[in-house]
Specification:
By secondary structure, the protein is mainly alpha-helical. The chain has one domain. It is built from 2 helices and no strands. The chain has helices at residues 2-82, 99-126. The termini are far apart.
Length: 127
């Protein structure tokens, strides 16, 4: 009796039950795959942000150092060669920076040197 009943029950539910179970398995693997793709995308985004943050560090001080260095170099060359009582005297001179800028430039240049020295000192203590 149970053999025929089991056969009929198996025959009636095998199609829908198999489809339901296979659908659940597929949905589970889709969710897993979706989460894997999300985590991969997030890790690539974070890596790109780290690269952007690290790439700014080398050129940002240059924006301050190049103009300051050109001005300082021009002042040094003028002071050595072309001042009134130097090797090649000229009537022209190199203008000084306006009052707020000269103080700011001093702060910027000194902060860069102090920052590099502090970085070296901290690096020695971390080892």
């Amino acid at each position: 009796m149970f053999g025929i009943f089991g056969f009929v029950l198996n025959w009636l539910t095998s199609g829908p039950l198999d489809r339901i179970l296979s659908s659940i398995d597929k949905h589970g693997s889709d969710i897993t795959e979706r989460e894997k793709i999300k985590s991969e995308a997030v890790s690539q985004y974070v890596a790109a942000q780290v690269q952007i943050a690290n790439s700014r560090q080398w050129w940002f001080p240059i924006l301050f150092l190049v103009p300051a260095g050109l001005w300082f170099g021009a002042v040094c060359l003028y002071s050595i060669f072309w001042c009134a009582k130097c090797a090649y005297p000229r009537a022209w001179s190199i203008a000084a920076l306006p009052p707020p800028l000269d103080q700011w430039e001093g702060w910027i240049v000194s902060s860069l040197f102090i920052g590099k020295a502090g970085e070296a000192i901290i690096g020695k203590f971390r080892k």
